[in-house]
Amino acid sequence: MKPAHPTEVVTEVVTDERDFAALAPAWARLYRRCATATPFQSHPWLHSWWLSYGGRGRLRLLVVRSGDDLLAVAPLMAVRRPLPALVPLGGAISDYGDVLVDDERGETAVAALTEALAAAARTALIDFREVRPGGAVERVYERWSGPRRRVSDSVCLELPAVPMDELVARLPSAKAQRVRAKLRRLTALGVRREVVRPDQVDSALRRLLELHRLQWQGRRVTGEHLRDRFCEHLVRSVGPMVRSGDAVVTEFRLDDDVVAVDLTLLSRRLAGGYLYGAHPRLREHKADVAVMLLDACAEHTRQEARGTLSLLRGNEPYKHHWRPEPVVNQRLLMARRRTAPLLSAAVWDAAARRRGKELVRRWEERRGHPEQGDERDRREPAAGGGS
Fold this sequence. Notes:
Layout: E1 9-14, H1 17-22, H2 24-32, H3 43-53, E2 59-66, E3 69-79, E4 85-88, E5 100-101, H4 106-120, E6 125-131, H5 137-143, E7 148-160, H6 164-169, H7 173-189, E8 192-195, H8 201-215, H9 228-243, E9 247-254, E10 257-266, E11 270-278, H10 281-284, H11 289-302, E12 308-313, E13 325-334, H12 340-367
Parallel strand pairs: 4-6, 11-12
Antiparallel strand pairs: 1-2, 2-3, 3-4, 3-5, 6-13, 7-12, 7-13, 8-9, 9-10, 10-11
Helix pairs in contact: 3-9, 4-5, 8-9
């Protein structure tokens, strides 16, 4: 492709893994200029995910450029099943899917990206899962001239990004007293937390996954968290994210032993507790792990002007103890007129899956064993914890 004039807007489809890697500096600048970006749209997260989970010949990065700057990026891949579609990179281990759009060149960038998506969707459905309300791709959806549908996706529970004492003050009096007692218990036990330095992140993440495996031994656990490819992805992506301020890893120590490790992901407007591992020893000491983790996460949000502390995907009952606001992610489906049948099929499939999950939930309730979640339940309460 010929070099673009600095004011000329051009689009291209990147399909080569090496070109994906080379986009890192420009991608990072665009990420900073997109206020709605979540950590799951950062280059380290998505490029690492592709190395662990991508398929040969399926990469489809839709890029809008102006000179050396990126104005917009839609990080997609082509899939053939269950329907031919272009779907966001990040898969099931990412809580939000979206595009990146330069806030300062919004209208130009959105118009060019919409046109590029329409051209790419010749025989495939555009299927954006887990779009947080207000996400940048909603602007593309509004401009889309072909068939389109919006359906509900996962529920995320969100709290205001305020210090822990303000989170506790939002609770009913009796519950707030119990939480304060649990915080005092952690102090009395001598539990100390320490933010991990960038050069120690890799070993801390491996320790996190070891503790995560240990805490769930003998119980149902998300299988992907135990696989080597997930470990490789986490170690490869989080180090650069810590160095750029998009993640923080915290270790919790008791008697000089690391008894828990937490990974919190950060963006301009949002902080989200992604994954942790905790030693069963904490349960033996009657330490409330959920309170300990939220206290640390609230501290991270206080240091920057973020608006939301997200408990991420999952509507587990223990999360409701903190009186969060339920926020429903959206699934945005866009098609050309000749691919409209694919859109109808996707909508029907989504409705069938929702009905199936509802039946399972009711069956579990009748048995007296409410569904606890798996892949989307990343802030599982430790046994004996909870507030």
